[in-house]
Structure formats: structure tokens, C-alpha cells
Amino acid sequence: MNKVVTFGEILLRLSTERHLRFSQADSYKATYGGGEFNVAVSLANYGVAAEFITRLPNNELGNSALKEMRKLGVDCHNVVFGGERLGLYFLETGSGTRASNVIYDRADSSMATITPGTIDWREALKETTWFHWSGITPALSQSAADACFEAIKVAHEMGITISTDLNYRSKLWNYGKEPKDVMPEMLQYSNIILGDIDTAYFMLGMDKVNPDYSNEASLPTLYDELFKKCPKLNTAVTTLRYSISASHQRIGGILYDGEKVYNADVQDVTPVVDRVGSGDAFMGGLIYGLLQTPVNKQRALNFAVAACCLKHTIAGDYNLITIEEIEKLLAGDFSGKVSR
Amino acid sequence: MNKVVTFGEILLRLSTERHLRFSQADSYKATYGGGEFNVAVSLANYGVAAEFITRLPNNELGNSALKEMRKLGVDCHNVVFGGERLGLYFLETGSGTRASNVIYDRADSSMATITPGTIDWREALKETTWFHWSGITPALSQSAADACFEAIKVAHEMGITISTDLNYRSKLWNYGKEPKDVMPEMLQYSNIILGDIDTAYFMLGMDKVNPDYSNEASLPTLYDELFKKCPKLNTAVTTLRYSISASHQRIGGILYDGEKVYNADVQDVTPVVDRVGSGDAFMGGLIYGLLQTPVNKQRALNFAVAACCLKHTIAGDYNLITIEEIEKLLAGDFSGKVSR
Amino acid sequence: MNKVVTFGEILLRLSTERHLRFSQADSYKATYGGGEFNVAVSLANYGVAAEFITRLPNNELGNSALKEMRKLGVDCHNVVFGGERLGLYFLETGSGTRASNVIYDRADSSMATITPGTIDWREALKETTWFHWSGITPALSQSAADACFEAIKVAHEMGITISTDLNYRSKLWNYGKEPKDVMPEMLQYSNIILGDIDTAYFMLGMDKVNPDYSNEASLPTLYDELFKKCPKLNTAVTTLRYSISASHQRIGGILYDGEKVYNADVQDVTPVVDRVGSGDAFMGGLIYGLLQTPVNKQRALNFAVAACCLKHTIAGDYNLITIEEIEKLLAGDFSGKVSR
Amino acid sequence: MNKVVTFGEILLRLSTERHLRFSQADSYKATYGGGEFNVAVSLANYGVAAEFITRLPNNELGNSALKEMRKLGVDCHNVVFGGERLGLYFLETGSGTRASNVIYDRADSSMATITPGTIDWREALKETTWFHWSGITPALSQSAADACFEAIKVAHEMGITISTDLNYRSKLWNYGKEPKDVMPEMLQYSNIILGDIDTAYFMLGMDKVNPDYSNEASLPTLYDELFKKCPKLNTAVTTLRYSISASHQRIGGILYDGEKVYNADVQDVTPVVDRVGSGDAFMGGLIYGLLQTPVNKQRALNFAVAACCLKHTIAGDYNLITIEEIEKLLAGDFSGKVSR
Amino acid sequence: MNKVVTFGEILLRLSTERHLRFSQADSYKATYGGGEFNVAVSLANYGVAAEFITRLPNNELGNSALKEMRKLGVDCHNVVFGGERLGLYFLETGSGTRASNVIYDRADSSMATITPGTIDWREALKETTWFHWSGITPALSQSAADACFEAIKVAHEMGITISTDLNYRSKLWNYGKEPKDVMPEMLQYSNIILGDIDTAYFMLGMDKVNPDYSNEASLPTLYDELFKKCPKLNTAVTTLRYSISASHQRIGGILYDGEKVYNADVQDVTPVVDRVGSGDAFMGGLIYGLLQTPVNKQRALNFAVAACCLKHTIAGDYNLITIEEIEKLLAGDFSGKVSR
Amino acid sequence: MNKVVTFGEILLRLSTERHLRFSQADSYKATYGGGEFNVAVSLANYGVAAEFITRLPNNELGNSALKEMRKLGVDCHNVVFGGERLGLYFLETGSGTRASNVIYDRADSSMATITPGTIDWREALKETTWFHWSGITPALSQSAADACFEAIKVAHEMGITISTDLNYRSKLWNYGKEPKDVMPEMLQYSNIILGDIDTAYFMLGMDKVNPDYSNEASLPTLYDELFKKCPKLNTAVTTLRYSISASHQRIGGILYDGEKVYNADVQDVTPVVDRVGSGDAFMGGLIYGLLQTPVNKQRALNFAVAACCLKHTIAGDYNLITIEEIEKLLAGDFSGKVSR
């Protein structure tokens, strides 16, 4: 039996309704989300034992976040309480040529002020087979980066598979470090990395590259450099996202296992209900796919792409899609016919 | 003066808002709908005298359904009260590649437990020129099927035109009978049938066919078999629906009168506000068209297709579209320009 | 420093939600809008000193309209109170092939009953560099037309640039005059006119024309006739709008300065959140463009087109778009990527 | 079988939600109401055949008002279409010591511009046993007063019982006439009048009085003067309303039949959900009571008071209360226990 | 460590908003509730290990109910899936003298069709110290009564404390049995019973009594008869509820342990936000009180009354009140001061 | 002409709707508020020139706060932009015996990180006659306390009247200082202080007292000690607030001018729509009263009490009450009658 643990921050998400601008809003929809938590939700939704570890403030907002985790079937028994505030983000959902806007308000959150030693990782990761983290946690603060690195090292020692979503957020990384100061060390232990090739190069402090994903033959050379930098890496994956507009995306994916490039067909996604969390839906689908069909990497990749596409039809950060719905898409049925 | 009576079930429809999934909903929009009622609403909306006959529970949900009928200008003086509950359906409206979902909760409703003898059909159908029923009522229960058949026979004896929408619903038909056990007998009396050719064959217990609607010349042979099975049939109509996604439909139609195939141009419908009831909008438009321009079948068919297309832009089950709006579409104006 | 004054009516806008038809609405969203006010909002939004002059009833609806002006940063210190009621309009927002509907309820409003002499224009227009009016005000009533003409003449005497949006509304002009009885005199003083060529000919009482905007070479001849009729005219602009449906527009623009035709590329706008006010967004962008880059007319026109396109993504009458967002579009980025 | 016809105006009511002030509202709840229509709704609700006659504009707001009438079971087959606009009123619902505010916007409505001769009263009042009008209609305009007087005279000639609610509205009566110029003539034909004694004196142009309702013995003298002025009057009724605050009312009633004063116990009503229409609920209850138990005037009065009290618990103008609920109150059960 | 298991039905609750009547509702708030589940929620909220056992349909409504249980921290690992539908109830919340109305729509629900043998009670009740059931389950159907009796007998054999809330619902008990046919046998094993004395006599088939709770000395004789009929009974408790109106309740309580009558002061509760579930809040508080301070029965009773009072301030079925808030009330602080 | 400047923080207020608990909320109403800003709104509302000075983050939340100030007619031209975030507070509105809860999330807000020297006070306070600050600003941080003290000293030097609301908030004061370390120095310059006597003693580091406000004669001695400690003080005012429950308050007030105690009658306030900001409404009413009728202190006090009472009927932090409405209350009319 597989058990996946993800570690990161859960945020209260306050989003305007009906595409209203911030200045028009007189109410906010309140949901929750966060890259690593969203991955755990995807997995729980597919029936995989999934646990999320974070640090929450001991107030009613923290308690409400905990209730949300429980509701979604994500194990939260290692969540710790402490710190002063729950991280927030405000979201204005765009439309057409108008982009969505995010205002982060997560500085000094309970998770940003977590320190190494807060979690007993050896105990927490017992019976865990997969550990997932993303580039958001080291972007929060030095202590959060340290706490994450602590977890990574324990997971590695315990022989647990480690996956990482690079998740570069330019509005974070405000504490005096750049990704290249922190990430190379942490990525040493990653077995699976999800991210654009240029982002990976940037985070690893390598020279800037400009990959041409349409030229499949050109990719192994580029990915191979990552494999060299990250000795435990066995799978590098990139989500292909062509933004026609905020309401129309085209989604594909590439997976490279050191030997072969796998390519998933690009799908049209229109209209977009909510694109936040679609990358996490890809990651969740990818982990599920690799757990279910480890030898069939094409299928794992296709599953991730289909999960990502379907996420765009769901309001909120989570991918509340069933395996059956993904299978229907994989089987070529895009009709959206009413089931009745 | 024409008067159309439709007979069937009206349901309380509880739908999630803003494309939310069932598990995200903390409220439901409450409207009403039901295939045969929706047809009556279309007709009332076009100025045709329309009556709906059903059985409602004697509680505030039943009374509210009655108020809805009155509001919409549908005559309801023959509605009877009895039974224990109003039928319900829960609707989750999909988007893009995610399909809409319907959860029926209509077992043992007041309409499902109706029995023959409940309505004095000879009295009720006085001054009626057209009687419409659909394949949903016989799918509910044996007694509902019997009650419907009773009505059909009286209507036939009284020389009333009878139309039928086959409306196959796989989630119904749970009482031990299959369509082929019930429908052939009932369809004996139908003058107009709306449905896919393969559905008609299936319901009539005929061999499975796979019609190619793009090959117009191939269709008369297939339709002719229906005319043979249904001796009173003079018009068979099929809605062509190509689902690009839940948000994008392409709608056309075919009418065959035993002599000639009429074909209406396929129209793009995007985005889709609500596709539930669009088949009933087609049926309502068809009846109106056949009443207004019985000799101009092409126009009747075009009217039905345009009504169906416009229905997709209306929230709820009903086609609250005016004749003027349909005429504008028929005249080729798809611009959706603001009238001011 | 530029200061722009616009003069006209602000209306309470009562719109149905979620594309509901009027007969389905049990609530209305309440915002404000009006052609000339919307232009002032655009300009205030771009950082231009903008003032709106109108007449409001002395009740809580009038006061609320005033609060709205202040909120949006539009100077309102010359607004006068008087008359009996605030003008209203009811809006049903269409979708796809179903058009939006407007029910005006603005007869005998405080603005419609304004009379010449109400505003001390010489005082009000001190320090003003640009005065904007539209064809809506003379359509309201004889006294509103007279009051507007009074303003125009003062503005002209004071050497202020005058712009006009022709804004023909067939549901107005009910007081016994036609545009050709009123507009030619008023347009004598306009330096910039925004409108379709055929509308301009119609309002000026000239023979009907059928301009072919795709044939650029054919346009100077047509525009030149306007320059002859309007001796102060130096810039004639036309918004090109191709309505694929209520949810899909294609927007371009043409500017003619008596010497040269400038043409802005046609942009796809889909989906449409709200198209009301998009013409005013064009006008606001045009004034801004002509103020900022008077010698670069191509850029001014492109700015107007981009502003108009982006307006379609905003709920309500106003164009709450930043210069940065317009610049991004002008630079060719239509991706709508989340900023985070 | 009794049939009651009421004649007056139906308004679109736009009310702020959750006790918001007008300046805080960004949406309005849209319902309908109007004194005489509200009376018809009460009666229909009690199972009495009730008809409402008015004049509506031929637009979607007028049609929606008609749908509302049908929904509520009020006969509307004599409603006429014409004129330019539906009357509106804006409502801000107070709380505690803060009063509710009404902004009327009904000038020049379709009903205000009705003229005598619009309705064929002799035809319309066939089979009618009771005709009800109120002091609002003559307050609208001279022509509305004339049209109402026309109806009164026909009703009188046809031997129909006539009831009148004095309904003085200080914000109306703007067309140059005062109540005492119009009402005395019209009240000549009233058999039942509902109103405060001082209001009646005022409207009839009599000297100001200051009745002391707690001194029952003092009332006959005062009422008798009304009987002298109104020769057909047989029943004068006064609603006693003690406003503790906007959220707490105390309601009683007095009925005088020329011989005896009947007094209904004062009831506490707290909290108040919506007090608009509570006077009409009293009137509706009174008519019902007088129809059902004409000889038991105490019971008719008690029924009216109980109906009025219960109305305060219902949102909107109408008294959607069942006879059973009123009977429970009359039987002394104020417990509000959940029925389950 | 205590662990409490409750067994019963969870319903989807569809309630009108803002005190609207059913016929006014165009949407329903969707929450969940059910007597025995509400008790489990109270206990989980107080930090007691609480589990709820029921049967749910295997559809998205059943899954959503399961998510609700998890969210609220109620253990649900013994919930079984089966049957056809989730039980529903529609709620119209009254105000003042207008009572709330409940329309049950729970016939043939998954819980009503549960049969003995569905749950392995010996396994399910391992480590359980307290089992709670109520009179609602045997009211649903014969098979539900049988399944409940099965659980009771196993719990008794395992030496588990058994509590029962009599919860008489006149709208249930439709399957041919009366309480006195079923309940006496089941109540044999109850150690704690919550209910009115007359309800207990009625359910046990004893002669009708009319207890005077204000006469404390008269109660032991009446309670003693219950102790005779129910040999395991050690504590009988009655909630005193005086309904001034739907918006104003007065709540007290009486506890009798076979030796002494304990009496809790009556508290005013006004206004009432939602009284549904307040009896379950009493039961939850009572179990908590008896678990925490078994020897201090006065305090246990006071805790139950305070919990019941505070429940009335919470929307929905559950008592989302903290121990600290109850303690504040017990300490005499009713001020409701803002904590900041 | 008077001009009042207030200085402090404006917060985004996120409040649950319909008395929901935080854990039930899936949306938050978004308004703004803050003690000193609320005072400015009151004054602007009464027609007094009012300005608010604060520091806002340069993002869309900061801009939206600025729009709110403008909308409400509060001068904001000295507001500065800087810092990282807008202060927030989450509000759960209680009912009856359940108290409201506030979760402050304002640490490190733009206002909390303001430093002396940010505002050019000598320039900003030109033409100002009254400066108001409260005990909240020094509770935020050392630098905010310093910035406030800087303003106080300049105001004092410029001969401006200074008023202070003590506004003790136990959840603030987290930066290592207690009120008694900071406030005595700052209060040296206050001419008017609003606060409970015991709070004043506590903040000034004096011995604890337990004033008996019902014993008027005992108060001068207590207030006199404050006058000794605060040499510029000429008026000390205390709001009397008796909390019957969260839904029922009783409000009075006491004013002492060094010579005489003025006492305003205690008023019942029930129900309470929103009590947040009612103290600021008192303060705003007091300043207005002292400005309008400086010699009639009784009237000034009565005005403050009436303003405070009426504030409880308004949703949100602000007192959107007109002078006319307050005058009506002062004249003894509590009836809340509909104005129509």
C-alpha cells in the first residue's frame, strides 16, 4: 500500500466572484489551497492514502483549515499548531485577455515561521512511501527552507521516493536568498521533478536555456543536464501550457526518464472556470499515474495531462475529479454529455 | 384554435451554482422542470393554449409547483393532488470537458404512483387538439405507464393529434420492464415522433442500427421501418446534436414525413448556459411550427432547431424565448447585439 | 496639465444576474453608468483629471450616485441637485445568440429635465482643456439638448477641445425631434467625433451611405464629407465591431485625420463578460491616447481598441483597466497568465 | 360564491437586503406589491375568487408583473396593457429605532396615466360581489382618480359591496388636488371603510379630531360623523398600531357597525421581518372575515388582526399565511413550535 | 478514555433563507443533520471521541454527507454504503408567531431500508463506552427498528452505557407500528433517557399523564414509574421548553437519578437563529456532562441547558459551541460582548 | 469652518454572514473600518469637513481602501502609500448569548510599520481645528506610537483641539509595551477623552478603581484625578453600555467638564444589527455635538448617545445615520415608522 505525504502551506483563499476586480468586490469566496495540499487532495480523491503536514495558527481560521483537510479525506494527524497567523491569498479571476491577479498575504504565517525540529520526521514518515515538496516552501523564509530540507534528508534516509514541483513564484523569495542559493542542495534528493526546463536551469543556477518543446529530439540533451545535477533524479516532467487567453488554455506534457521522451497530446481547455491549482492537478495525476502504472509512463503522463485539463473546469484550488471522469477523457470522450 | 395538452411529471430541480460540484455545494438553486412540462411552457410562451396534467403531493412543495405552472401561463386545472412526494432531481452543471451530472430522486413520487382512472381523460381532453407524452412517463413505473397508455387511447379515440418524444433515460426504467416491453404498444397511436433513429429502433425492439445522418439518402429506408411499426405515424423527427464539449454544442435537425427528408442547418451553440431542456425546446418549437405552418415542414423544422439553440442560453429547464427572437435567428442574425 | 469635463446622465443600472431573463429575476445587481460618465471614469482611471457634470435628484438614490462618482475618483463638485428622479435602466445580459436587452426608464429624470442656465459653464469649465458630450443628451429632451448646446458654445468660446460620441439610441429621441433636427448645429463645434460613418451621415441629415470599412481607400471620401459639414472637425474615428455572438466580438478601429486613414488590427474578444460601456471605453482610451501621444495617432487608436477589448472582460459599465494592462495587450501578450 | 375585484397599481418593489441602507446596496431584491393587489393576494390565499385590475406597460417588466399575479392565483384577465412604465418603489428596511424608508418612483406609470373608459367596468364586474379600492389610486393623478370613480359608480349601480382602505400617503397627492377635493365624492359609495378616524376626518375635509382609542365609549360619536358623511357606510374599521420600534409592533383593531364597537386584543409582534403590506393583510383578513362570518363581527375583526400580525413575519408585500395558521393564533397558540 | 457511538440517520437539510416561505424560495441552503449525528458532532466538538454509524447511498449526495462527518471530526469508518437515496428534509424557518415547518422526504432512504445484520456491531462497538440512539430510528421502518434493536442488544451485552433521546416525531411512524409496539422492548436497556414524562409514558404504552414540572415534589412519583418499566434506567432527564414565540424560547431542565430531582434555572433565549437541533445539543451536553462530572449531576444538567441555549444562536443543526463559551454562560456572563 | 483630522488605521473587515461561525463560512462580506476612520465617516456624514490620515500598501487592496474613503466623503489627500500589507480583521457576528468574535490580522501592516517623519504634520494639519486619535494606534507598534505622538505634539503646538478615544484592545499591545508605558505621555495633550474611568486609570498607570456610574455624585472625584493627570483635559466622557446580550444593549453616557456631571438617559437597543463601531459612532456624535453646541453639553452628550444607539442598526463599521434621524430620536420618536 502506498502512502504519500506532502509538506507545505495551506492558505485561506479569498477570491472575488463573477470575474469582479478587487475594487468591485464587496465579498470574497473563502476556500483553501496551497500547492502541496492540492496534490494531497488529488491523491485522496483517487483513493491513495494521502497526508498533509503543515503548521497552523491556533485560532478559528487554523481550525477551519484543519476541518477542510479532514473533509477532503487528507490525513492531518501530524499537523502542528503554532505561530500567529494563517497565510492568505486574494485572487481576482480574469477572463479573456484580462489576466487573473494574486495578492499574496502570507508573510510571517505559521508555516513561514516554522523551524527545523518542529516535526519529528522519522516518526511522521513511518509507513510513508512517497514524499512530495515544492519550490514554494523554500521561497517562504530561511527557516521554512531549513525545515523542508530537514524533511527531505530524513525521507531520503528512509528510502522514500521524493518528488518536487519547482513552482517558481516571483512574488515570493523575499527573504534575501535566490532559488539558486537554496534549491540545488535540496533537489539533490529528488527522484521526480516537475517543471519547465528553463525554470529548472534557473533554480539550479545553470545557464539560461530556451527549450523548444516542439522539437522533441532536442530535449534529451537539456534534460540530461538536470540528471547530472540531481543524481537521484529518474523522471523529469514538464507541463506544456499554451495560454490563448485567460479563458482558453492548451495543455500537454512531456516526460523524460533518462532514456526516452514521452509526449502527451495537447488538449484544448475552454472555457476555463478556474486555472489556479491546475499545475498541482498535473502533479497529483502524475504521482497517481506513476504509482498505478510505473512501467507505463505514457499512460502516467496522459493521466496527468487529463487531470490537469479537467481541473480547469472546477472552481477552487482542488481537482475534485474522479478517476472515471479522467478515464472517459483518456478514452477520447470530450463531449461533456449529461449523465442521466 | 389549437389547444395542446401534455402529460408527465414536474420535478423540483436542485442545481449547484457556478459549476460547483455536488460536494462543493452549500446551496441549491430551486427551479422546476420536466420534459412534458417544458414543452407546455414553450407553447404557452408562443401564445398557444397549453395545459399540463400531472399528479402532485398535497404539501407546500406540490403547491409551489402549481404556482410555477400558473406563473408560466400553463393551464393546470386538471392537475390532481395525491401521493406522498414531489419528484426531485439534483443537477451539477458541467463545463468544457466535464459533463453535467444528474441525480434523480423521483422514485415513489406522486406522479410515479399515479394509476389509471385518476384522470377523467374524456373530460380533460375536451377541446384539445394535440396531446403530447414522452418516454419518461412509462419509464417511471408500471402504473404510470398504464395511466399514460389510458390517456393515449382516449386521445386517439377523440381524434386528437398525438406526439411523442422518445426521451430515453438509462437511469430510469427500474421497475422490471424494458422500453421494448412497453413502448411499441403505446407508440401505435403516435402521429409525430421525436427521437434518434437508433433510440426508436431500440425502444420498438427492433434490431440495432447505426444511422449516418450525414448521408441523407440513407435515412428514408430507416425511417420507413418506423412508419411500418407505428401505423399512425406521419412525421418522424431527429435532433442532431454534436457535443464538442459541455460548453459547445452543434445543433441541427432532420424531419421525414414519409416522402421527403428535410434538413436544417447545423448551428454552433457556445457558450452553453444550460442545456437541460433543450430537447424539450426542440419539441415545443416543432409542435408550434407544425401548428403554424403545417404545409411548410422546412420552416417548422428550422423553427424547432432555432428554439433548441436559443434554449441553451437560458438558465433552467424552460425555453423562455420569444417568437421574435427565434425569427431573428431564422433570418440569419446571430449577432446578439444589445437592443437599446 | 489636462483636465477633461464630460457632461451627461448617470443612470442606476439594474441588471439581472447569471444571464437570467427579466421574468426569472428575483434580484437586480445595482451599479451605475452612463456614456459620458463612463468616459470620465476611464480617464480618472488612467490618472487624467476628470470631472463629470450632471443633475441628480435630491434623494438617497441621487446621493448614492454621487458617492459612486467620488469613489471612482471623478470630480463631481459641479453636479447640481434638482428634479424628481434618477434615470434607470434595466439590463438583461444575453449569451451566445441571445442578445442583451435594455429597458430604459429614464423619462423625466433629473437630467432629462435640466434646462439651460442650470450650470454656470464659464465657471465650471475654468481650467478645463477638453469637453466631451455624446448624442445621448440631446436625445433625452428639448431642454437637455438646449442645456448641452449651451455648454458646447461656452466650451468653444473658451477654446476648449470638444469631442463627441454620436451614440445613437433608437429607444430614445421620443420628444418630437429627430437627430437631424438637433445634431448638425451641435456638431459644428466638435473637434473629434466618434461614430460609424453611416450614423454620422444620418445624424447630420445627409444621404444614406453604406461604407465598406474593409476598403480603406474608399473611406477618405466619405469622411471628408463630415469634415465639410463640421468645420472644426480634425479627427473622425470609427469603432469596428463584428458581433459573432453576444459572447464573441471582434473589435477594431479606424481613425481619419483629414489626411490619412489609420487602421487598428481587429482583435477577438471572447468570452464577453459585459459589453455595455465598451464603446465608452473606446472613447476614454481615444481621449487618453490623443492627450498622451497627439502626434502618434496610430498609438492613440491602438490604445482605444485595446481599452475597448479589455472592457468586455469587466462587469458593469466602467472600464476598470489599468494602463499597464492595456500596454501588455499592445505589446502582444494576450495570454491572461496569472500574475503571482 | 363570492368574487372580489380590487383595482389599483402593482409596483415593482426593489428592496435592500439585510437592513442595508440605500447607499450600501449593491443589489436589490425584486418583488411586487401594491395595496389593492396585496388584498387580492390575501383573498386568493384564503381560497376566495379574487381578481385584480390594473394597467401595465407592454414590456418585460409589465409581463413579469402579470406572471406574478398568475403565480399567486389572482385572476388578471381584465388587466390592460398601455402606458410607458411600471411604477417602482425602493425600500430600505429599518431595524429597531431606525425607520424604514420608501422612495416612490411611480410618477407617469401606466396606472397613473390610466383614463376613464379604459376598462369596460360593466363587463369586468359581472359576477363580482365585492369591489375594493384604496386612497392610493386617487392620489396618483387626476385621471387615475377619475378612472377609479368611474369604477366605483358602476360597482354601486350593479349593487356590489364596496370597501375602501383610506391609505393616506403623504409622498403622493402631488398633482394639485388634496384628499378633501376628491375623496368625499368617492367615499359616498363605500360600505366598508378601513382607516384611522383622524385620517377619515382629514380626507373628508372635516375638522381635525384626536381620537382616544383606549376610551371605547368615546368612539361611536366620532364614527357616527363618518356614517353621516358616507351614507352607504355600514362598517368602519380602524387598525390600532403601536410602534415600539421598527422591530416591535403592537397590533389591535376596532370595528364599529353603527351600533356597537368591537375591540380585538392588542398583540405583540416581535421581531418584525417586514411590515410593508401589513395594513393590506388586515384589509384582506377583514374582507374574508366579513364574507365568511358576516354576523360574527368580532370574529371577522379578530381574523383581520391575526392576519395583520402574521404578515409581519413574511418577507415581501404579501400575506402568504394560511387560514390554518391564523386559526392557530386565534386559538391562542403563539408558540411558533416546529411542525414535524 | 471514553468513546461514544451514535446510530441513526443523517439527512440533507434544505432550508429556505431569510425566513422565506417555501413558495417564495428560489434557492435552498444545503446542510446536513439528524438527531443522533448532531449529538456526535456536539461531543466531537467538546473533544470526546465520537463516532456515527449510518447507511448512505453510494452517490455524490452520500459521499458529500460522509465528507461533512469527517469535516466535523466525527469518526465514520463504520458507515456503510447501500440503498437508493439520502433522506432529505425541507425546512422553512419561522419567526415570531409563525412556526417553522418541516417537510420530511426520507421514506425509503438508505437508512430507512437498513436491515439487521448490516453492521457487525460486536466489531463496531469495540472500545466503545457509550452508545446513543433515539426514537427516530424505530420510527422510520420495521427494518430500521430491528437494526437498532440489534445494536442495543449487542451494546448491552458488551456492558456499554446506553442513552436514548425519545424524540417523538408525529410525521414519522408511518409503517404500521405505534411507538408503544416497539419502544418498550428497546428502552429496556437504556441507562439514560431524555424526554418529556408524558412522551415517555406514551411511548411505553402507559396511561396518559400531565406532569407539572413547576411542582418539583410531584415529579419523583412520575419518574419512578419509568424506572420500573425500564430496569436499567438510572437517569431520566427532561428538557423544559417554554415557547414564547418562534423567536423567543425559555429553556430549563430537570434530571432525576432515582433519588433526587435536579433543576436547572430557566434561561431566556432571544432571538432564535435556528432552533432545530437544540434538543440534540441538550443531549450532547448531557452526555458530556455525565462523562466529565458523573458525580456532579447538577453541573451536568446545567451544562446541558447552557449548551441547548447557545445552540439556538447557531444556524444549522449542529451545536458549534466551545466548552469555553458554555463555561462563560455557566459563570453567569450573558453579555455577548465582542472579544477583541 | 471646522475641519477635523483623524489619524489611525483602516482595516479590511471580513465578516461572516447571517451569524455564521468562522468554521461555517464559505464567504466573507468585505467592508472597511477602523476606530479613527469610523469617526471621520460620522463627521463627514454630518457635513463636517473630515480628513483621515493613514498609511496604505501600494496594491489593489490599498487602492480599494482609498476608494472607500473617497466614496464616504472623507478627505484622503494626505494618505501615504508604503509598507507591505493592509491590516485585516475577521469578524464573526454573535447573537443572543453568543458573543461576536474578532480575529485581528494586522501585525506588520502598512500602518503598524509607519514611522515618525512619514507625514509632514505641520503641512497636513494646516486649517485643521480638531485632531482625533485613539488608543489603538499606540497599541500597534512602537513606531506607530511614535508617529502618533509626533502628530499629537504638532497638533498641540498649532493650537488644535485634541480628542482621544482610549479604545483599549487586549488582543493588541503585543510589542513589549503596556499602555501605562506609553499613554500617559500622549494623553498630556488631550482636551477631550472618551473612555471608562477604570480604563483611563489603567492606561494612566493609576490604581485600579471600580466606579459606580449609577451614583452620579461619586464620579467627580474620580474624573478629577484624570484632570490632574492630563493637564489639558477639559471634558471627560464615558459611554455607558449594559450588555443584556449580543442582541440587546442598553446605552447611556456621562460627560464631566470639571464642574458638572451630565447624564444622558439610557436607551434600549434591540435588536442589534452590528455593534462594531458603535463606540466610534458615540465619539463622532460627541465631536459633532461639541462643535455645534459647545455651550450645551447636555445636548452634545445626548447627540452622542443617540448616534451610538442608531449605529447598532447599521451593518458595517460606519454610522450611516443622518442628523435628521438622530434629531427624531432626540425628540422622543422611537417608533421606526415607515416614511412614505
From TrEMBL, chains A, B, C, D, E, F:
Residues 1-311 form the Carbohydrate kinase PfkB domain. It comes from the Bacteria. The keyword Kinase applies. Keywords: Kinase, Transferase. Pfam families: PfkB. The keyword Mitochondrion does not apply. GO terms for molecular function: kinase activity. Belongs to the carbohydrate kinase PfkB family. This is Sugar kinase. The lineage of its organism: Bacteria, Pseudomonadati, Bacteroidota, Flavobacteriia, Flavobacteriales.
